């Protein structure tokens, strides 16, 4: 039981990083991206390749993943500078579809649908951190660092400028804010952190393929942020934990016949999400728009 | 801020979860647990239902025969056909349900689950995926279905005998499809044939009209397609709708109801392991008789495979119990490699050093919604 709970807790920490990173875009900068799984995937592939070809050091792999995802964030920043709202959603959707195809076709880098197998157990500065407890501690530390970093950023002038931009882009521009620079930086920070989560995910699963970085994953991440509460530090974390643990908890229901388990779980899962949004429209840990 | 009511609801849910866990632990010691890790929702749920039905019939037979000293219980996990779902599901089956033996399907799920199963000494048995990369995935990862290379080796001589010299190949761009293309490309010249053209499709593709036009242009005598899941029915329908009238040929993935019930699939030729329901051996006869009584239709090869997978557990565990050995992953593998040959549905199955089954292949033609053996 401990191993299972640790696995879930480690996944919750990794998806917590992903959700808080997406919250930088959605919650603080008002950029509704449906392509966050792309940067998660880039990080996972970069981390896996570093582990397979260079060293299984989780710090180095994470650094490479963060750098690659951060650099690739320009692909998302460029449309974000030109369009917003529903037009940007469409543009990010296109990026997600493009990336899924590239992940599938670039077989020498990603292994295609077959994926990358045999990712070695992680080490950290020469120490073995492959045991579930040790790797959970690594992921938890990474999550803690991300939360502290985001809190510091958002409490400073960068964060305040971002939120001004989110609430009214033209007003922010009128007050002399460099909108292009702010948006590019916000996207770079969010995507780089998604890359970090990707590298940790690659070590945790020891196998990565394109099926983990699809549009469904991007939508799930968006749901984590919205259900938890956008524009708050704790909200995305609550959303990530809830959306990961709810299906896990449902799998313990003893009265569901084996052939119906998937359908019943999906029904309860979908119903719970709908009810949450009806009764807590600002998210579980969210604040109404005027109080953010 | 999180409200007090939300916290109370969360606490209640946690308490219910803990109670369910305690119940799971209490049951575990008294029985052998077989886990299933199939997609049970979404577009691939059809496979999950088929796989589970085969396993459930074998469980009923194990219980009727009182083959084992302890009862065998089935615990289902929804893999969602994703690697993450597979890894999480396998972790739960191994660490919470304490399954000693699991049934698995789908390549991505298998690859993600294999290291976890191996680490926890849980046997994983695939009866659905036929990709060549499923061979030797881990010492405790076994295949009770012949992999695709054996199916293609059987169909090429048949195509030659039918005078189909030019063969077009439509394949999913993944390890399975690429392996099928390579083997067909290599085997055709040796059998006096040529590759009329090869056309790759993405696993998520749903529109095949433009590819059908290209296939028509390549003027093949037959079209071989390597795909799986709901996509197969779309390929067949759209090729026929777009004027591809040549013989369509595929492999065992076509033995699912969505293909069988498709009017355009009439005449489809496909390979599968030997599924001769008229065989007179008692294992096959009992399986077929009980299946027809319960479901009023003939079983498919997937039903057969997962029945065989569970029956194999019964035979191995029975051997271990008689020898006074523990029934765990390592002991089950040692027993499999010691015995090697087992009386299964469809005849005798023989396992090689990689724990892959060898079983004769037959060629079928779809006729009136049923598979008719033609070779």
From TrEMBL, chain A:
Matching InterPro entries: ABC_transp_permease, LivM-like
Compartment(s) of residence: Cell membrane
Domain of life: Bacteria
Chief place of localization: membrane
GO terms, molecular function: branched-chain amino acid transmembrane transporter activity
Tagged with keyword Transmembrane: yes
Record field: transmembrane: 6-28, 35-54, 60-81, 88-113, 133-153, 185-207, 219-246, 267-286
UniProt protein name: Branched-chain amino acid ABC transporter permease
Species of the source: Aliidongia dinghuensis
Taxonomic placement: Bacteria, Pseudomonadati, Pseudomonadota, Alphaproteobacteria, Rhodospirillales
TrEMBL record, chain B:
Pfam families xref list: Peripla_BP_6
GO biological process: amino acid transport
Keywords tagged on the record: Amino-acid transport, Signal, Transport
InterPro entries per the UniProt record, alphabetical: BCAA_transport, Leu-bd, Peripla_BP_I
Transport among keywords: yes
Keyword Cytoplasm found: no
Ranges where the Leucine-binding protein domain occurs: 34-353
Cleaved signal peptide residues: 1-26
UniProt family annotation: Belongs to the leucine-binding protein family.
Name of the molecule in the record: ABC transporter substrate-binding protein
Species, as recorded: Aliidongia dinghuensis
Lineage summary: Bacteria, Pseudomonadati, Pseudomonadota, Alphaproteobacteria, Rhodospirillales
